[in-house]
Amino acid sequence: MRDIRWLVTGAGGMLGRDLRSVLERSGEHVTAATRADLDITDPDAVRRAVRGHDVVVNCAAWTDVDGAETAEDRATAVNGTGVRHLAAACAGTGSRLLHVSTDYVLPGDATEPYPESAPTGPVNAYGRSKLAGERAVAELLPEHGYTVRTAWLYGEHGPNFVATMLRLAARRDTLDVVDDQRGQPTWSYALARKLVELGRAAHTGRASAGVYHGTAGGSTSWFGLAQEIYRLTGLDPSRISPIPSSAFPSPARRPAYSVLAHDNWATAGLTPLDDDWQHSLSEALRRPSFRALVPSGTAP
Hints:
Elements: E1 5-9, H1 14-25, E2 29-33, H2 43-50, E3 55-58, H3 72-93, E4 96-102, H4 125-140, E5 145-150, E6 153-154, H5 161-169, E7 175-178, E8 182-183, E9 186-187, H6 188-203, E10 210-213, E11 220-221, H7 222-232, E12 240-243, H8 277-284, H9 288-291
Helix pairs in contact: 1-6, 2-3, 3-4, 5-7
């Protein structure tokens, strides 16, 4: 069987850069399209870009959650209409589409992990825009479309909570961090590796189309995550205090519960991401770019 020809959209972002790295290190044939290379809201450009590729992984997205509250049309143009263009182009070529989505399509009011089949119900504009993309994939690619929801993503190549906590550790003696939102901290590089596994299974017909949850195992709060970051890097976790979300108001409402179940991976003969979010965090924090953020005088 010939090599898989991959197209990664949004290849300049945090997840896109990690995905490109995983594919290139594996010796795969990959076209990495940054936002400057490909505007997914342009249907003609999308058709040209998809042509000649077997698996398309869409990492392109509007990610400004609060900004979407006052620019929902613009967010939906990327997260909804742009994804529809990709799905239509893949339908025309027979390519598999792996679309990266989010826990924000869910209402966030559960008390146990959301299965992939859980009813959706976004609580903000960003979630609605991402749900539009999910629906486009399901409608246009019922047999070749894969939606992978992730949450609480962090990595080396973009703004994220882990990097922010390390930077603040050098500037502030104490920090207040929200403790009434619960989720699964997920390392972008680990997710990239899993996307490649799923893409290969999709290409060979081993993985059924549908929704997959791409998050680490276990769960914690933002406060718990911050404390673990400090502990793993030799900082004092007692410097962090818990506060409610109401003390940190933001334009967009956040889901209170973003813990996802991972049952559908078994249908593809694959395992989910690491069962322990703490294990992935420990591995990530050994990367040079994170280590460089640790204040001097501490030791991981």
